[in-house]
């Protein structure tokens, strides 16, 4: 499912126009993005939670140059499905 399919489905399910569905989608993604950039997670009941995890810096080996390189720490977005969603998918 891509963005336009999602907007179409929301429009049909909630009986609102595609324009309103698109505005709703853009508002939701904007709000979630602002929480992610402030390193705060988002919890959606019966669906799951999106959390920010920090991956520490580490050394890695580059086989082409045969040198060790220090990879900087970075933030990752992780999704943990709700237990009910996991149960429904089985």
Could you explain how this protein is built, in words?
With 90 residues, this protein is of the alpha+beta class. The protein has 2 domains: 1-38; 41-90, IHF-like DNA-binding proteins (HU Protein, Chain A). It is 43% helix and 32% strand. The strands form 2 sheets. It has a 3-stranded antiparallel beta sheet with strand order 1-2-5. Strands 3-4 form a two-stranded antiparallel sheet. α1 (3-14) packs across α2 (18-37).
Euclidean distance between termini CA atoms: 20 Å
Q: Sheet with the most strands?
A: 3 strands, antiparallel
Helical content (DSSP H or I, runs of 4+): 40-55%
Main sheet: which strands, in order across? 1-2-5
In DSSP terms (H or I, runs of 4 or more residues), the helix count works out at: 3
Coarse structural class = alpha+beta
- The low-confidence parts are none
**Roughly what fraction of the amino acids lie in strands?**
25-35%
- The second-level CATH architecture of the largest domain is Irregular
CA gyration radius, whole angstroms: 19 Å
Q: How would you name the CATH homologous superfamily of the largest domain?
A: IHF-like DNA-binding proteins
Average residue-wise pLDDT: 92
How many domain units? 2
At the first level of CATH, the class of the largest domain is Few Secondary Structures
Order of SSEs: HHEEEEEH
Shape: elongated
Got a strand count?
5
What is the CATH third-level topology name of the largest domain?
A: HU Protein, Chain A
């Amino acid at each position: 499912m891509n963005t336009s399919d999602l907007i179409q489905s929301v429009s049909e399910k909630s009986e609102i126009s595609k324009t309103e569905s698109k505005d709703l989608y853009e508002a939701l993604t904007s709000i979630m993005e602002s929480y992610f950039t402030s390193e705060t997670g988002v919890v959606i009941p019966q669906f799951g939670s999106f959390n920010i995890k920090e991956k520490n810096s580490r050394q890695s080996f580059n086989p082409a140059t045969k040198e060790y390189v220090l990879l900087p720490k970075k933030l990752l977005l992780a999704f943990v499905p709700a237990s009910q969603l996991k149960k429904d998918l089985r």
